[in-house]
Amino acid sequence: MQVHDWKRITEEHASAVWQTAYRLLHNQADAADCLQETFLAAFELAQRQRVRNIRGLLLRLATTRAIDRLRQRTRRARQESECEDWQQLASAEPGPDSEAQSCELAARLRAAIGQLPAQEAKVFCLRHFNELSYRQIAKELQITTGAAGVLLHRAKTKLRELLAPVEEETRLPYGT
Amino acid sequence: MEHDDDILQRAIEQCRNEAIPPHPPQAVVDATVATLAEAAARKADSPRQRNTHVLRLTTRFAAAAAVLIFAGYAVGRLSAPRTLDIEQLRQAVEASLATSIEPTVRQRVIEDLGRQWQATLETTYVALREDLTVQYRHELAQVAVQTLAASNANTNRLLENLIESINVADMQKRQWFVAGLEQIHTARRQDNTQFADALVSFASAVGGEFERTKQDMVNLLAETRGGAGAPDQPDSATKD
């Protein structure tokens, strides 16, 4: 059985895992929870099977955990938007904070990633945020390189559809 | 599509360029290291712990080995020239199985149950934490709704008071203005009356003076003519 020095591994890879989680979640508490869950999951996994690339494993686990949390946020936001009290009090005009948020492309991209299927979201994040090659992504997710390309293409197509309304809204005032 | 590529690429770039703390807080790293150490200690406490699949394989292997031993022993005993005491053989095999396999199986079943309980508790903990988070957010939203409603009612009441005060002040000013106009009108009528009276008095005074001047002129003319005889006395002179 492999023996790992988890203290050293944690101190060595905590920054990469932290940045991966924070970039997707953009929230310190969630990123901290995600970091702990990632290392604990890696520890459990290392007890059961041989791990060849600990950094790749940690990045994959961090991405998976962060996407799970993004999806939970999306579900929660839908539940909260169904609250009748808020609808009674809500103004017809958007507030300044929501106006600012609607202009925030990165926030919209995160929300859109939360609406993607899990595997497509993982491929997209590993490719564009962790800058892994198709081969590395395929190896980490245990799929073929071609499948990784197909999943990435689907993810980008869906993200374009989800981001398109924002672009139309931002273009309207200029009449273009 | 080119435009969509542009927006997606811009979103990715914006996401990449966002300011991210380069390192996690040291407290988080320390907590993670502590959690991993605790998990490692748990694993170390049960060094023979293996996964369920391996446990089942081992149990099956032990059972198969016991069956083979039993079969070999039985074949040997049956092939022996002496008569076989089946009852004694059965008791010996049962005792052997009980002493060799049962403790191991019992221990592994207990360990398996312990792992299952631990996994169940962890799952329950995660679900409970999610439920509490959802409930917390829901209650926070309700409190915010109630606070906003109370604030709106208070603001409306204050606005109503302000409008009422403005109306009262406006009414008072209007009344003062009407009273002032009436006073000015009364003063103007009084001035007109006084002016008319003064004009009449002045006219009568001027009329009297005019008559006296006229008489004086007549007298002067009479005196000036002198010897032309006694002048005719005018009617007005007799009146005076």
Low-pLDDT ranges of chain A: 83-94, 172-176
Alpha-beta classification of chain A: mainly alpha
- Number of DSSP strand runs of chain A: 0
Largest interface, C-beta within 8 A: A-B, 46 and 40 residues
Shape of chain B: rod-shaped
The domain tally of chain A reads 1
Q: Return the average pLDDT of chain A rounded to an integer.
A: 79
Q: DSSP helix count of chain B?
A: 6
Strand content bin of chain B: under 5%
- Oligomer state equals heterodimer
In angstroms, what separates the terminal alpha carbons of chain A? 63 Å
- Taken from the alpha-carbon principal axes, the silhouette of chain A is globular
Structural category of chain B is mainly alpha
- Named at the architecture level, the CATH assignment of chain A is Up-down Bundle
State the helicity of chain B in percent bands.
over 70%
For this structure, the CATH topology of chain A is Butyryl-CoA Dehydrogenase, subunit A, domain 3
SSE order of chain B: HHHHHH
Largest sheet descriptor of chain B: none
Task: Kindly state the number of beta strands of chain B.
Answer: 0
Give an overview in words.
The complex is a heterodimer of chains A (176) and B (240). Chain A has one domain (3-80, 98-170): Butyryl-CoA Dehydrogenase, subunit A, domain 3 (Up-down Bundle). With 176 residues, chain A is an all-alpha fold. Chain A has 9 helices and no strands. Chain B has 240 residues and is mostly helical. Helices cover 87% and strands 0% of the residues of chain B. The radius of gyration of chain B is 65 Å and the shape is rod-shaped. In chain B, 3% of the residues are buried. The mean pLDDT of chain B is 85. The chains are: A mainly alpha (176), B mainly alpha (240). The A-B interface holds A 6-7, 10-11, 14-15, 17-19, 22-23, 26, 28, 31-32, 35-36, 39-40, 43-44, 47-48, 72, 76, 79-80, 83, 85-86, 89, 104-106, 108-110, 128-129, 156, 159-160, 163-164, 166-167 and B 1, 3-5, 7-8, 10-12, 14-16, 18, 20-25, 28-29, 31-33, 35-37, 39-40, 43, 51, 130, 134, 137-138, 141-142, 145, 148-149.
